[in-house]
Design goal:
120 residues; mainly beta; seven-stranded mixed β-sheet; four-stranded antiparallel β-sheet
Length: 120
């Protein structure tokens, strides 16, 4: 079993910054990728950024240049530094891990989410 926990959410003014963290624990043979997703109120969940084991990061166009992903080499800890936040960034942010439990079996795991609210 794999557990993910997000932390660092909260209320911030437009133009401010927040840093989200995600830690994975449990039965982990190999973490293939980690990702950050968000779900604005009343809207579908969307990808924010993903990173693979080699360190390649893909950002959504809406956050490019403002958000930055960092992580440890095993991808068991990832961070999302969010700068120049806008009201449209308001959403529940989720951490997702694609984890191999052995050499041939994998599953996606999701954290419970962290609320980020950007407002004056």
């Amino acid at each position: 079993q794999v557990q993910l926990v997000e932390s660092g959410g909260g209320l911030v003014q437009p133009g401010g910054s927040l840093r989200l963290s995600c830690e994975a624990s449990g039965t982990i043979f190999h973490v293939a990728s980690m990702g950050w997703y968000r779900q604005p109120p009343g809207k579908p969940r969307e990808v924010v950024a993903t990173v693979n084991r080699g360190g390649s990061v893909d950002y959504a166009d809406s956050v490019k240049g403002r958000f930055t992903v960092s992580r440890d080499n095993a991808l068991t800890t990832v961070h999302l530094q969010m700068d120049s936040l806008k009201p449209d960034d308001t959403a529940v942010y989720y951490c997702r891990a694609r984890v191999y439990s052995n050499r041939v079996e994998w599953d996606d795991y999701w954290g419970p989410g962290a609320q980020v609210t950007v407002a004056s």
